[in-house]
Structure formats: C-alpha cells, structure tokens
Specification:
Elements: H1 4-29, H2 40-57, H3 62-89, H4 94-118, H5 121-125, H6 130-136, H7 139-151
Length: about 160
C-alpha cells in the first residue's frame, strides 16, 4: 500500500466499521442513536466478516476484497433501494435520509476498495515485495559477497 488513496480507503473502511460497531452496541442496549441496524444478527456477522476483509485490503488480496464488496452490496444494497423508493414515493422521514446516507457509504467504500485493489499496477507487476527481493533474489550480490569474502584474509597473532 504505497498510494495515499489506498491508505484513505482503509482508514475510511475502519472508521465506518467502528461506526457500525457503535451503532450495533447501542441498538442492542436499547439506546437510540442516529442510525440503527437493519438486522442485528446479520449486522454482527457482517462486522466480523468486514474486520477480516479490511485487514486484507492492506495485503492487496483480491478475493477478500471481493467478498467484502459482495457482502456489503447484498446487505446495504437492498436497504439503499428501499430508502430510495421511500424518497421517490414521498413518504420519507429524517431517519430514512440518515439510513440512505449510511447505506450509500456502506456500498461506496467496498466498491472503492475493490477497484483500488483491482486496478493496482504493483500487485500485478510485482507480486513479491521489492524491499526484500534485492537481498534474497540477487545472484550478483551473492557473487560479490563471495569474491570479497575470499580476498579478505586477516592476519592473526
């Protein structure tokens, strides 16, 4: 993760995950908050799945980011569609607008993470870390070290 955009996507994903954790905990305690979970059981499962998948955003793995995108699109996509229909019909409340915003962010962050990992040129061109390749896969360095080691003969008393 060398790009600023990758770091920002990961930070926003963790911030949104933290917001959903707080929302879920407050809802389960019976305290009113700005937003509330759609389904408490699925929200908890999604929180655990999201935490694991966000950790793999930094590793630039495509499969966990794809799972992250599919899970969030299935969970928040229906909610997004439902809130848009309420706004079109004109029977919306303030909570519907907040839910629409939360669902929109819940779909936008995984989509951005998916395209960030998918379009990352370094992941495809250099699947191995460049910081260690110079040492482990450099035969010239090994030859120079061997030649230098053969010429260094120290006198002992």
């Amino acid at each position: 993760m060398k790009n600023l955009s990758s770091w920002l996507i990961a930070i926003f994903a963790f911030m949104f995950w933290g917001f959903r954790v707080v929302t879920t905990v407050l809802y389960s305690m019976g305290i009113e908050f700005v937003a509330e979970p759609i389904d408490l059981t699925m929200e908890i499962v999604l929180l655990f799945l999201t935490f694991i998948c966000i950790c793999f955003i930094a590793k630039r793995k495509l499969l966990p980011v794809t799972i992250y995108l599919i899970a969030h699109c299935l969970y928040y996509g229906y909610y997004l569609y439902q809130n848009i229909m309420l706004i079109i019909e004109g029977t919306q409340t303030l909570n519907d607008y907040v839910s629409l915003l939360v669902a929109l962010v819940g779909v936008a962050i995984p989509l951005a993470a998916f395209f960030d990992v998918l379009l990352d040129k370094n992941r495809k061109a250099h699947p191995v870390d460049k910081q260690t390749d110079w040492f482990y896969k450099n035969e010239q360095y090994d030859r120079k070290l061997d030649e230098r080691a053969d010429k260094n003969q120290y006198r002992t008393l």
